[in-house]
Design goal:
Elements lengths: L1 E2 L3 E4 L2 E7 L2 E4 L6 E6 L2 E4 L6 E6 L2 E4 L6 E4 H7 L6 H11 L1
Antiparallel strand pairs: 1-2, 2-3, 3-4, 4-5, 5-6, 6-7, 7-8, 8-9
Helix pairs in contact: 1-2
């Protein structure tokens, strides 16, 4: 998959798109998959459920740092293109 800074694509199909701090399903804006605040990734458009956070080069489950989900090296292998936390959020929302 390739991320160009605004769209995550699998060949020519748009899997997800980024608008501000939110990631939406496909090319539309009706279904918000996750949103980003500070170093945390939240479910949907709210901030009640933190599903992951990025510290240094590791992505952790929830808001803590006890369970590592992936490293940025793993995420970079799955998604080509720019972005740290945004790419990690795309990985959480669509790839994992």
């Amino acid at each position: 998959m390739k991320f160009d800074g605004t769209k995550l694509k699998d060949r020519s199909k748009t899997i997800a798109n980024v608008r501000g701090d939110r990631i939406y399903d496909g090319s539309g804006s009706s279904k918000c998959l996750v949103n980003i605040r500070n170093d945390r990734i939240y479910e949907g458009s709210g901030s009640s459920k933190c599903i992951a956070n990025l510290k240094r080069d590791k992505l952790y489950e929830g808001s803590g740092s006890s369970r590592t989900i992936a490293t940025m090296k793993d995420i970079d292998k799955a998604i080509d293109g720019p972005g740290g936390l945004t790419k990690a959020a795309l990985w959480i929302a669509k790839v994992r």
